[in-house]
TrEMBL record:
Stretch list, region Disordered: 43-67
Stated name of the protein: Uncharacterized protein
Lineage of the species this protein comes from: Bacteria, Bacillati, Actinomycetota, Actinomycetes, Micromonosporales
Top-level taxonomic group: Bacteria
């Protein structure tokens, strides 16, 4: 995978990560390990993001004024 860019960024004002694969696929996750596993699984990563939902994704998000 030499010379191909993988990118993980923190979403502003949130605990979530956004990953971008060199193929253009993007996903969000709450756990860095899940995000990197998803990215490194190219070309077999699922289009929607990491296959296993993390706890942060299953909990309701608090209103914006409480974050």
């Amino acid at each position: 995978m030499s010379g191909q860019l993988l990118q993980v960024t923190w979403l502003p004002g949130d605990d979530r990560l956004r990953g971008r694969c060199h193929c253009g696929a993007q996903a969000e996750a709450g756990e860095p390990v899940a995000m990197w596993e998803w990215l490194l699984a190219h070309p077999d990563h699922p289009a929607g993001g990491p296959a296993t939902p993390d706890e942060a994704a299953t909990l309701p998000r608090p209103p914006a004024h409480l974050r």
